[in-house]
Give the backbone structure.
Amino acid sequence: MKYQKTVGFILKRVDCNDGVASHCETLIRGLKAHGWRIVMITGPVFYDSTSITRFATLKSLVEDWVTFEKINPLVPDFSCLLKIYQTIRKYEISLLHAHGYSMLLIARILQIFTQIRCVATFHPSIHGNDPKLLKEKALQVNHLQYQFYLGLFTPDKFIAYSSEIANFLTQDLNFPESKVSRMLLGIDTDLFRPPTAEERCLARKKLNFQEDELICALVGRLSWNKGHDILIDAVRQLRTEHSITNIRCLFSGSGHEEKQIKDYAFQSEEDQFYFHFMGFTEDLRDIYWAADIFVLPSRKEGFALVVAEAMACGVVPIRTPAGGAEDQIEDGVNGFIFPFDDSETLVSQLKLLSNNPQLRKHLAAQAYKTAQQKFTLEKMINDTIAVYEQASLKGI
């Protein structure tokens, strides 16, 4: 196949309200600026009235968007494979980027007929209706299953968006380091930046927060995996056991567990004041600019792009040691890391920050410095293109 700067993004599904869709939008913009064309090949697309703008934006950025009502990645049907094959030929796609390792079987079948190359990224997450079971589920990693599947359908290159994922591939699964390209996700640091005093005041006024209140933000899909219950428990404990009543929580996101999480938060009339749910938010700057602390108690992550965005806005990050934590936070230097499902440690960290404005200011400045040094959009795009070109040229 003639080498073209055209890549097909292949995903099992697209949720326009989550971080994968946000990353795809950022990546596509950067690739287009360097002369690449992108074709989306996906299973069902989900959006609502709050996230339809992202869907429209993604659609406007790509050459075409081929969708299927359902893609079975383990037993793909002939009509699905034929349609993808025809799309590859039509747009002279030279490379598939599988967002999620489950799509690698489809990529391997297509490679037999087209000689197309493939790179793959992981976006690990877990799902479930019972938060108490998710901790155990997160720890149950079937290494043999991963080794068998990924060994059988190995892409030309793995892109690891965090040190944790890179270590999982090379150390736990024993893939050669030459197969794995570690690169950190990038953000638009011109967009995500610390607010001026006026911008911070306006953001707080817009969200009905007072200047003397301590605002904790959590941006993420309303899923028990994100650990909303851990932050809710911690704030409730700060109020009742430590008499810290100026703390309020701001949640941004939507998802299938929305009703359950809200029911967990709103157990009294008083809770209506302390916990504020905004739904999915297209422009997150007001949230970051109004916040003092960004908390992400996730049980499983790939990188957690929202943490990098918050850091770039000068917000103190606190998170669990899920994917990306090692790259984002040096504990006690530019933020804090606390153990999974450990609301007690989170309480201690929030109490410390509540009582020490100077420490908050220092950690926020260090978080901003880290974001400027490590999470640049330009580096991510350049690194991605280098991997694409390396993989694509193998097929010439």
